[in-house]
Amino acid sequence: MRVLIMGAAGMVGQKLLSRLQNADTGLGNISKIYLHDMVPANTASWSGASEVLVGNIAEAAEMQKLADLKPDVIFHLASIVSGEAELEFSKGWQVNMAGSWAFLESLRQHHDDSGGTYVPKIIFTSSIAVFGPPFPDKISDEFLCAPQTSYGAQKAIVEMLIADYSRKGYIEGISIRLPTICVRPGKPNLAASSFFSGIIREPLNGVEAILPVSDDVRHWHASPRSAARFLTHAASLDLSQLGSRRSLNMPGVSCTVAEQIEALRNVAGSDVVALIKPQLEERIVKIVAGWPRNFDTARAHALGFESEASFEEIIKIYLEDDLPKP
Amino acid sequence: MRVLIMGAAGMVGQKLLSRLQNADTGLGNISKIYLHDMVPANTASWSGASEVLVGNIAEAAEMQKLADLKPDVIFHLASIVSGEAELEFSKGWQVNMAGSWAFLESLRQHHDDSGGTYVPKIIFTSSIAVFGPPFPDKISDEFLCAPQTSYGAQKAIVEMLIADYSRKGYIEGISIRLPTICVRPGKPNLAASSFFSGIIREPLNGVEAILPVSDDVRHWHASPRSAARFLTHAASLDLSQLGSRRSLNMPGVSCTVAEQIEALRNVAGSDVVALIKPQLEERIVKIVAGWPRNFDTARAHALGFESEASFEEIIKIYLEDDLPKP
Questions:
Q1: Residue B190 has what pLDDT?
Q2: A56-62: long-range contacts at Cβ-Cβ below 8 A with a sequence spacing of 24 or more?
Q3: Which pLDDT value is given to residue B192?
Q4: Is residue A142 within 8 angstroms of chain B, CB to CB?
Q5: Chain A residue numbers touching B101 (CB-CB < 8 A)
Q6: Is B85 exposed, middle or buried (0-12, 13-18, 19+ CB in 10 A)?
Q7: Across-strand partners of A34?
Q8: From the CA of A98, how many Å to the nearest CA of chain B?
Q9: Rounded mean pLDDT of A61-68?
Q10: ipTM, 2 decimals?
């Protein structure tokens, strides 16, 4: 089996590669992994055959090249992030929508050329950014997509494409809507959600962290380990059981910032918590007010997707998997 | 004010033109109407200035030409129909999705070139085909889009585009999801929904009509007159009040085929009803089983959209507006 990871250089792509190496994912024997991204992906965690590919998913010719590899399983994690898609409107649509459509069209051509025998499995990482307020207390599996960002709209549209190409039998697709991934390893980034990880990660590394929102903000989290597990679990499923609803809200932990902080106190003590410095930032407050707080992920649970049960567990996974060793 | 109607040669386009001529639509003074379609639109019902344009909305250059007209109000009714989009997959996406995206991009360019002063109003006709089963008894304004056809997926995607371009302030858009339009004047067509009109229209014209489904099938209807009124009402609204949810389920009449037939009996008598010949057609039965049956259109009602209150009223509108005069 040949596997393609698009967006392989990113944090989730790397977690996925490591999981494919180290866990029994039920995917069967992988003969080769193609790792595609804008920059060369690190292959250190993969001992089998691999090929590193570099290119821009906004370009139809690049998408044709990837489809020509005729991968059996495709993990499509590639996109520009929310903030960039909002600032660079045209680029966002080209990269996050047009590129994916071009890719699906190239795959469909191979499906047709093969007499219908080539039906690649595609696992697309979507996002809870497909939802917009007003929200119910818990977002159900039947709640409408009403994105508040171009990024969310682009994700929702690629979900639609994947559902329709799957319905027609050209691919076997699934879109998994990831919670906010927490605790992200590494440096803070410019994402408005960065602080959700930062207020845990920085104090655990002895560094102060700004909390830019009120501590009663509730949000929806899962660990990087869960993200990789969602991806391989999705790839191991018989996707025909999804019927025509190919987009799934992934499980997560719903908790307030105050609950995040109490979990940190339980795991690491009050001295660590003291490194969190509340300092309201109106721009972030406003953005976060439009984000989902909680989900009822009945469908995903029924299909065997599982996340952490508590935010403490999420912190412990960071300590196990990602805390820099001294 | 300059108005553009895309899909102007179609039945709803023609009803709209007639309504713009004959009713007080609250739209203000129309200096010119551009009528665009694949074939020349009839201008007989419009006494003001008009220009008939012929072209293919799948072509970006054609969409650029239409945007270059810088219309103030755009009624976008153009698409290939469900059956054709299902049979000709690639054509469906090019016409029903790519064309609309190219059009929005050209309008955005004019918005930018105008320093942000050009913000056209767009009323896009979407469809209840954006929904797929399983359905609740009544589909609410918060029910997910899960189309069962490429046509439905394409409509749902253009809705997303219109919502995002509106959110960014490039356009002022609304997508109105029309019920099945009944009683359609003219000849039967190949649409699976054709019989809903046929079992009323043909008997009223003294002709037999096949009923290909069981008479307990429930569906969602509005008259052509309502369709035209939805469009002009949408154009008269301050669309900023929609916030970021720019897609609205239009009101309609939910009734079973048996109730349709009883309404026909009340209006036209049992001899007319006797011209309906039940003859199950499995292909149609199967398609129709996947269609919505009823809606709670609270948002549309609150915004002043109104349909008929009964199927009898729908039949009477056919008699008034469309029954061929002997």
A1: 77
A2: A56/A95, A56/A99, A57/A6, A57/A95, A57/A99, A57/A100, A57/A103, A58/A91, A58/A94, A58/A95, A58/A98, A58/A99, A59/A99, A59/A102, A60/A98, A60/A99, A60/A102, A60/A106, A62/A99
A3: 84
A4: yes
A5: 93
A6: buried
A7: A4, A51
A8: 10
A9: 98
A10: 0.96
* 8 A C-beta contact, residue A277 and residue A210: yes
What pTM was estimated for this model as a whole? 0.96
3-state SS record for B106-144: HHHHHHHHCCCCCCCEEEEEEEHHHCCCCCCCCECCCEC
- Residues of chain B contacting A164 with CB distance shorter than 8 Å: 147, 150, 153
R_g of chain B, CA atoms, integer Å: 19
**Which of B220, B222, B93 shows the shortest CA–CA distance to B158?**
B93
User: B255 forms bridges with which residues in the sheet?
Assistant: B219
Average pLDDT over residues A98-113: 98
Mean pLDDT (whole number) for A172-201 = 94
Q: 3-state class of B164 per DSSP? A: helix
E strand segments, B204-269:
209-211, 218-222, 247-249, 253-256
For chain A, say whether B157 makes contact (Cβ under 8 Å): yes
CA separation for the pair B84, B92 (Å, rounded): 7
Active-site residue flag, A151: yes
Tallying the residues shown for chain B, one arrives at 326
- Residue A26 — very low, low, confident or very high, per pLDDT cuts 50/70/90? confident
- Cβ contacts of A148 on chain B, cutoff 8 Å: 167, 244
In this predicted structure, what is the pLDDT of residue A189? Answer: 81
Flag if B163 and A153 touch (Cβ within 8 Å).
yes
Q: Is B185 on the interface with A (CB under 8 A)?
A: no
Nearest C-alpha neighbor of A82 from the set A177, A12, A148 = A148
Domains of chain A: 2-178+223-249 (3.40.50.720)
Residue A261 near residue A182 (C-beta atoms within 8 A): no
Nearest CA in chain B to A87: B168
Determine the 3-state secondary structure of B208 from DSSP: coil
What residues contact A300, with CB distance under 8 A and at least 6 apart?
Answer: A248, A249, A250, A251
The SS3 call for residue B285 is: helix
**Of the candidates B149, B95, B91, the residue with the CA atom closest to the CA atom of residue A164:** B149
Give the nearest chain A residue to B165 (CA atoms).
Answer: A150
Strand positions, DSSP E, chain A:
2-6, 32-37, 50-54, 73-76, 121-127, 172-178, 180-181, 209-211, 218-222, 247-249, 253-256, 276-278
pLDDT below 70 — which residues of chain B?
A: none
Given a cut of 90, is residue A287 above it in pLDDT? no
Q: What is the DSSP letter of B190?
A: S
CA A85 to chain centre: 16
pLDDT bracket for residue A118 (50, 70, 90): very high
| Nearest-CA distance B246 → chain A (Å) | 9
Q: What is the C-alpha to C-alpha distance for residues B87 and B288, in angstroms, rounded to an integer?
A: 17
- Give buried/exposed letters for A169-190 (b at 16+ CB in 10 A, else e): ebbbbbbbbbbbbbbbeeeeee
Please, is B309 exposed, middle or buried when counting C-beta atoms within 10 Å of its C-beta (0-12, 13-18, 19+)? exposed
Closest CA–CA distance from residue A17 to any residue of chain B (Å): 32
Q: What is the pLDDT of residue B189?
A: 81
pLDDT tier at A190, thresholds 50, 70, 90: confident
A160 in contact with chain B, both atoms CB, cutoff 8 A: yes
Tokens representing residue B264 in the block: 């026909």
Give which of A33, A37, A67 is closest to A50, Cα–Cα.
Answer: A33
Q: Among A52-61, A303-312, B21-30, B197-206, whose mean pLDDT is lowest?
A: B21-30
User: Within a 13 Å sphere around the CA of A130, how many CA atoms are in the beta-carbon half?
Assistant: 30
